[in-house]
């Protein structure tokens, strides 16, 4: 009898201890520093998997639709809007006291076909106005921030030759920000792009943002996507860019963070999805699990990066991971399809990885 009681009491103690360990979460640990976000697939927005749904609510306080708010999905035809999944995202965020970061209003990729038929300035302005008014207007007051323009600058710093640039010239950039500010005056408005540590690209982005500011349009922040590797870019390169963007008087967010651990074919960097490579055994070495030394290297990399973000927390408003667990990541299919990658903080069973604990550790009260 007595022994049973002892067994029961120790079992209760173990449970209580486990709960205390896991009561800690990224969102609570980083409270007071910056928001911690994730990107959600359609199934995750619809809470198809209860384990993942609980994990998202516990760990993250800002949610982004990985695909469902891109124009081709949300506004596929001139007069057709598909609100179901976006509405569900806002409801989910409100349920878990999280914010929504909208991704994205004006982007050349995953773009509704009708934009491509606009050949005159009037028609393109009308299409942009209707799209931004309707989408940003629908969620006005409920959107914490928007990627107003996504990926408008090339690696050499020139403006990307999108249909928007072709028809309207560079004025389309300021126009997009003015329309977004009018549709939702409360939302923070961002420019978002990948490979943001490259020197030529950075100079191009800075030139572009200055012009947007000079036009009188409101631009609140710059998003550095953060599709990075174990070694590249260096901490110094990331820091130089954070400081250079912040010097424009805007906030900086790390918007799509993941740390690729696989060999990099042809040194593909960033997220230009036109760059693809063949999947070969040499490029896909960890199908049966990640070796301990790579787990440790990734944990150290995440720790170094987050230590840098904390150093600059006065200018960093949000850090969003591009996916919940390793199994969900787009990195399993880029730049080569069908590989087994491990870029995120939770493993394929939704268990926190070493990398997760390494960044939690940074916020432990000493
Ligand atoms: O993660 C997204 C993936 O599921 C889509 O197939 C892909 C299509 O372009 O877009 C991915 O997300 C991109 C984001 O919207 C913008 N920056 C680059 C991201 C990775 O390609």
Features:
366 residues, single chain, alpha/beta, 15% strand
Notes on the protein architecture:
The structure is a single chain. This protein is an alpha/beta fold. Helix content is 42%, strand content 15%. The protein is built from 14 helices and 9 strands. Helix 8 (121-138) packs parallel to helix 10. The protein is globular, with a radius of gyration of 21 Å. Mean pLDDT is 94; it is low at 13-23. Bound molecules: ligand 9MR.
Number of strands: 9
Gyration radius, in Å = 21 Å
The gross shape turns out to be globular
Fraction of residues in H or I helices? 40-55%
**Mean pLDDT level:** 94
Distance from N terminus to C terminus (CA atoms, Å) equals 42 Å
- Which ions, cofactors or small ligands are bound in this entry? ligand 9MR
The main β sheet shows up as: 8 strands, parallel, barrel
Spans where pLDDT lies below 50 across 5 or more residues: 13-23
Structure classification: alpha/beta
| String of helices and strands | HHEHHEHHEHHEHHEHEEHEHEH
Write the layout of secondary structure elements.
Elements: H1 2-23, H2 26-29, E1 35-40, H3 42-45, H4 50-59, E2 62-65, H5 71-74, H6 84-95, E3 99-107, H7 113-116, H8 121-138, E4 145-150, H9 163-168, H10 171-183, E5 188-193, H11 199-214, E6 221-224, E7 227-229, H12 235-246, E8 251-260, H13 292-311, E9 316-321, H14 354-361
Parallel strand pairs: 1-2, 1-9, 2-3, 3-4, 4-5, 5-6, 6-8, 7-8, 8-9
The structure holds ligand 9MR.
């Amino acid at each position: 009898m007595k022994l049973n009681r002892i067994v029961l009491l120790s079992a209760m103690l173990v449970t209580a201890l486990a709960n205390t360990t896991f009561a800690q979460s990224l969102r609570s640990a980083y409270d007071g520093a910056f928001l911690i976000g994730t990107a959600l697939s359609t199934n995750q927005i619809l809470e198809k998997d209860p384990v993942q749904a609980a994990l998202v609510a516990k760990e993250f306080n800002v949610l982004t639709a990985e695909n469902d708010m891109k124009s081709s999905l949300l506004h596929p035809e001139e007069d057709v809007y598909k609100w179901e999944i976006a509405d569900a995202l806002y409801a989910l965020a409100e349920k878990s006291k999280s914010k929504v970061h909208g991704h994205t209003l004006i982007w050349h990729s995953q773009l509704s076909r009708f934009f491509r038929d606009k050949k005159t300035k009037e028609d393109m302005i009308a299409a942009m106005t209707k799209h931004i008014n309707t989408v940003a207007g629908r969620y006005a007051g409920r959107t914490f921030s928007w990627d107003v323009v996504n990926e408008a600058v090339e690696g050499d710093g020139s403006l990307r030759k999108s249909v928007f640039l072709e028809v309207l010239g560079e004025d389309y950039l300021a126009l997009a920000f003015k329309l977004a500010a009018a549709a939702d005056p409360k939302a923070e408005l961002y420019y978002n792009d990948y490979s943001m540590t490259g020197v030529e690209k950075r100079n191009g982005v800075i030139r572009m943002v200055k012009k947007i500011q000079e036009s009188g349009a409101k631009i609140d922040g710059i998003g550095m996507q953060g599709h990075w590797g174990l070694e590249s870019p260096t901490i110094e390169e990331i820091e130089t860019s954070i400081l250079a963007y912040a010097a424009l008087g805007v906030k900086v967010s790390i918007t799509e963070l993941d740390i690729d651990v696989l060999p990099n074919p042809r040194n593909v960097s960033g997220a230009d999805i036109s760059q693809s490579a063949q999947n070969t055994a040499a490029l896909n070495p960890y199908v049966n699990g990640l070796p301990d030394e790579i787990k440790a290297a990734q944990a150290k990399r995440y720790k170094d990066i987050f230590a840098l973000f904390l150093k600059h927390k006065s200018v960093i408003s949000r850090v969003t991971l591009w996916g919940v667990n390793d199994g969900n990541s787009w990195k399993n299919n880029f730049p080569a399809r069908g590989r087994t990658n491990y870029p995120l903080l939770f493993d394929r069973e939704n268990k926190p990885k070493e990398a997760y604990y390494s960044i939690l550790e940074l916020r432990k009260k000493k």
